[in-house]
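ok so dumb question maybe but i'm new to this and my supervisor (M.) told me to 'just get the structure for Alkaline phosphatase' and walked off. so i did the thing. is this what she meant?? sequence i used:
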Amino acid sequence: YHSYLVILYVMLRLENSYSQRNYKDPLFWNTWAQHTLKNALTLQKLNQNTAKNLILFLGDGMGIPTVTAARILKGQLSGQSGEETQLEMDKFPFVALSKTYNTNAQVADSAGTATAYLCGVKANEGTVGVSAAAVRSQCNTTQGNEVTSILRWAKEAGKSVGIVTTTRVNHATPSAAYAHCVDRDWFSDGEMPAEAVQAGCKDIARQLFENIPNIDVIMGGGRKYMFPKNQSDVEYPGDKKHFGTRKDGRNLVEEWTNRMKNKVSSQYVWNKRELLSVNPNNVDYILGLFEPGDLPYNLERNTETDPSLTEMVELAIKILRKNPRGFYLLVEGGRIDHGHHEGKAKQALHEAVEMDRAIGRAGLITSIYDTMTVVTADHSHMFNFGGYTPRGNTIFGLAPMLSDVDQKPFTAILYGNGPGFKVINGLRENVSTLDYQGNNYQAQSAVPLRMETHGGEDVAVFAKGPMAHLLHGVHEQNYIPHVMAYAACIGQNRDHCMSSGGASSLSPALPSLAALLTLTRLLC
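this is what came out, is it supposed to look like this??
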């Protein structure tokens, strides 16, 4: 471990030496490569410890082009050229690719993918926590098709569990951790068709508090879905769009608070001041709802009242790690996706950089010896950058030449489709007349759409800690929670964890004959 730190220090020194333009000297590149090789050789001794803790960082919509562009942005924010910078996730020793398709969709959505990387089962688009036998929006296909998540497996094993997101806590990604719902948009009963409510289907907000008793940490947005219809919001009392949405009249926050009175240490918070006043040593359960809907983009966040993802993650880990049996934490950088859908690459990339900060903070307060950390995305986007830009070109800048067709400049960042398509007098808009580096600039797109779409290519999976080497090639997305459960000896992956003497052992276990026969039947 110490040699790993020394190598990392040398690599950082090499990275910083770019400012001295040493990259013109072959010795620079040879030295860096040799240190990287030495680091790789240290990984030949695999970490086969049992993972006491599991952390999954999910960058919603964080395709590989987004990772690369965020890396450059991170470097440029610190005065560097950018390309040579390392994201925190770049430092993870193991990388794989994840195939993101849904069972009924070549290009996936965030609900079906969440079911895959949380529940271990691929599913239809638009559904959460149910198998592909469930049909979107058809309430009567829910019962009997529920699938459980790794968050539940961890809770049942005695671990503490948490959810932290920059979206609503009942949005697609987090909801697959606890809900079983045939429609991702059933945030509260106010968004459900009357027949679905009458048939006994539950809204997602309700399931957050009822399905898995006592989730230890819940932080994000989505306040309005917890309160009765037309009840004003504590932060925006005069804004009707933020009023409560529940038709059943229930106040889920009040119900949680009352139920938790029996717990010696629980707290509900709704702003940054309250969050930062929490002493993690004195609180075991926390519910933090910081906005009626999604949290604001990090670039637009009020740093006095709105917590950052990093701040939420740090407190979450400090609360969860008190459990001697360890914890499972799901962290979503959810607004990367929203920025891309709106064609606002600057918002999306700053969200990705903030999630990387959170990854770094988590690494400082956990250990690779007993904590498996995985960073991945649910799907990609129709986002890319190119145009033969020179080294150090601002990631939001122009390509160095004009189009040889319409003789106009273009930005390096472009979308395949989306709201940035604009024609003026029958010609492409001249971006040099616009503030193309503005926070809300919508990058040009090839096809006009009100909202840009997801991309269908594989996404990266970065892993470190116990058994991280099992994420090593091209995998189906639903493989991810099986690996994490195996590393932690939870869920269906426990038989290999106990040796005959009772000591923990992570030697591979042969599948049972029954399992082999079942698999054979499914494949035939």
